[in-house]
Every structure is written in C-alpha cells, then in structure tokens.
TrEMBL record:
Region (Disordered): 76-95
Organism of provenance: Streptomyces noursei (Streptomyces albulus)
Domain RNA polymerase sigma factor 70 region 4 type: 125-177
Ranges for domain SnoaL-like: 201-290
Protein name, as recorded: RNA polymerase subunit sigma-70
Amino acid sequence: MSDRLEAHRTELTGYCYRMLGSAFEAEDAVQETMVRAWRGHDRFEGRASLRSWLHRIATNVCLDLLKGSSRRARPMDLVSPSSAGSPIGTGLPGTTWIGPVPDERVLARAGDPADTAVARESVRLAFVSALQRLAPRQRAVLILREVLCWSASEVAELLDSSVASVNSALQRARATLAASGNDLAAAPRQPLDDAQRALLDRYVDAFERFDMAALTAVLHEDCTLSMPPYSLWLRGRADVLAFLRGPGCGCRGSCLVPLAANGMPAFGQYRAGGAPWALQVIEITDGRITGLTSFLDTERLFPLFGLPPRDEA
C-alpha cells in the first residue's frame, strides 16, 4: 500500500502547493494526507480510484489549513514599486509570502508535452499568487479542472457538490485569473530553448563579475526585482541596476548555482566567502530577463533545494 501511495506524492505535492502557496506547508499537507490514507485504507472500498480518494483527503487537509488564514502574496501584490534609494524596511513573517518550490517536488518527470507545459505554467510564482485570490473551494475547482483535467462530475463528487455549482465556481475563478493576467487558456510557456539558455549564461557571467554594462544587456527595461521577506520591490532596469550599485553592492563576487524552481530557471546565490545569500528565481520574456525574485530565507530554502550551507569552491 505504501508504494501505491508514494506513486501519487509528486502530483499531490503540486496540488497542495498550488492550494497553499508554500512548499513547506504543501509537504506537511501531503504527509498528513498519507497518514490519513494509511490509517483509513481498510475503509477504502475501491468505489473511486486511489488517485481521486487521495485528492479528496488532500483537499480536506488544505481547506482546513486555509481556514482563517490570510492569503500569501508577492511584494508587488501588496505595495507599489519603490525607488532604488528607498529604505529596505523590516522583513515580514514568512507566512506573508508565496514561496519557491523545487520543480522535482511538484512536476512529473514525463508526460504529455501539452499537459507538462500547463503544469509548469501553473506553478509559476505569479500564477500561484493569483490562485491565492480565489476562495479556497474555487481554488480547488480551478486546479482540479484546469490543471489536473478532472471532469466537472469528478470534481463535484470530490467536493460533495453539484456539477452546476462546480461549473459556476470555475467560471468565477477563470474571470478572476483573467483579470489578473494569469489565464491558463493563454499559450503556456515552453521549456528553455537554446537562446534562453545562452541568455542565462550571459546573466550568470555578468552577475558573478558584477558587470553592470553586461547586466544592462540581459535585463528588460521593465524588469522587476523583489526580495521576500521584504515588501520593497523595484520596477525598471535603471532602478534595479542602481540598487545593485548601492544597497545591493554586497552581491559583488557572488557565485550562482543553477537550479529549477516553479517551472522557471533559478539559482542559489552565495556571496563572496561562501555564505548563502538568496535563492533567485528568474523570469524570461521576449529574450530578456523580466523578473528577479531573491528569496532570502536561505536557512530553510537551501536545504529544500539540496544546496550546501556554504559554497566551498
């Protein structure tokens, strides 16, 4: 039984991550799901598939966790952009923010290319943040219908609801996401191509040499920089580079270790001397880097991504 349960762990973790916006909460939710399933497996009579039974349990776990909690967000969801010279301020609690997740924890290694593209799109930071704007049951409906491709009748059975209610919830959820610019009906982003890999190589080289002219060439003029747990964020290449020259000058001499997070390229950043500093998630659009999110909670995030506590290279 344990092997049959474990076969569903990646999909369940992706589902719970989209619901909760935190890799750590998602893993806790999946573990609770597995415990409940193991304890109740003698009552599982096979009237539904094991997959649907596990998702029913996971949905109930997530809905319980979401009761009374505030929605997670990104800095740009909470405040207006600041200038490079603005005070960084005080960090907010970790429960404020959408957190990153390693691709291998939430994305299947193989599958239909179209389904894989949708799955990758649906764990992007911006999309997961948009999901948090939905009421929890709407969130579940949209993920089950649009990402996992369940039928309306299957979702209705899982939620002890009606097909009409599920379709109504899906319609409202789609409208909310479309208004936020995060519509899965749009063409999902494809895996990195050679040009994007070359762009990332140029970014790594420029960042590690702290070459502002080279960084200018790879950053989009409207790129953003955010640094959870701080609410401050910047918009525009000029402000991002001014920040790096000023308050961010401690990044000079950094080393970047390639990773994959939220269906996007990412890097573990170690400052000169080997101290961990940030987990960077990179967004690319139209041949330029349009988003840099530096998560600074390295004490928790580096072990999650399998990164050593120091760079000894």
